[in-house]
Amino acid sequence: MITILAIESSCDETSASVCRNGVILSNVIATQAVHEQFGGVVPELASRAHMENIVPVVDKALKEAGVEMNELSAIAFTQAPGLIGSLLVGVQFAKSLALALNIPLIAVHHMQAHVLANLIPQEKPSFPFLCLTVSGGHTQIVLCETATQMKVLGETIDDAAGEAFDKTAKLLGLPYPGGPLIDKYAQLGNADRFKFPEPQIPELNFSFSGLKTSILYFLRNAGTSLVYKEEFLASEEEQQKFIAENLNDICASVQQRIVSILLNKLKKAVKQTGVQQICLAGGVSANSGLRKAFAELGEKHHWKTFIPSFEYCTDNAGMIAITAYHKYLAGDFVSLAVQPSARAEW
Ligand code: KG4
Ligand code: ZN
Predict the structure, then answer these.
(1) Residue 345: its pLDDT value, please?
(2) Which residue has its alpha carbon closest to ligand 1 atom 2?
(3) Is the confidence at residue 230, as pLDDT, over 90?
(4) pTM reported for the whole predicted model
(5) Where mainly found (predicted)?
């Protein structure tokens, strides 16, 4: 019996999960509300909140799983990438527990874990599969050859897809994180009303910063132009009026463009690799427009498509636990000297 306790603390979610023989028994997530008033994650506040949350979250995860500490086979934690102060809390906690229980320690790469969240449900993709990972910090197309062998085929050269949603929301005066709100308003709007540009980026890489700039100019010109035009700048009042009268259509049009940027690259990746088992991962995969277009595309091209349930799409320790389970099987452990890293190569 392999029973693993996993801890995730890379950003603003403190999470713990218990996994037994590859089955998730619990996945407790404490979201830090403290950042909302600042319109983004404040690193120092995130580490403090992790320190407050980690003991109750781990306790709850063990209780929900009905597992005692002495039944654990290993402790897993997110090593990278993430906010260094936040990662440190999880790493120190995991090390102390592994030392006290005298059991092995497993270091997990957060982005690999997002991909492997697709192995949590009963109906799983078979290897090799492609995964489009879309979150607030990352946008990647990953070729997953085995549970321990992955290759990044393409990624964003600037903003992540989630950032594109959140920054657009900010321009529209919506609170952080604005992605879910854009999704909500988009459902009521006409996606063909406004045409935002699709960037021409080589290979399988993405770019979202040009889209953000064109939305900025579009709003400043009260919808008359996507380019910088000093003589056409609308007053603050005119901009607010334009947004208020057209919010649903703007959200629908922006969302449609973000989704088409993502899926056009995914189509290209399928063409290049010939792989037809396709997964989504990361918090943005909650987006209803993306889910619908992804499913339709899959049907049209006869791909087998997979999306983990929402609880395993946003940051969570369940995905760390499933990744750790496969690392356990491969004998991939780390020593107590292991350190976290804000940025990490694969
Ligand atoms: O994976 P995640 O929870 O955290 C990171 O690791 O970044 O992703 C959070 C991102 C945020 O940018 C949030 O706005 C976005 O996912 N998001 C959405 C939706 N739900 C969450 N974006 C668009 N539509 C949604 N329904
Ligand atoms: Zn994440």
Answers:
(1) 76
(2) 283
(3) no
(4) 0.94
(5) cytoplasm
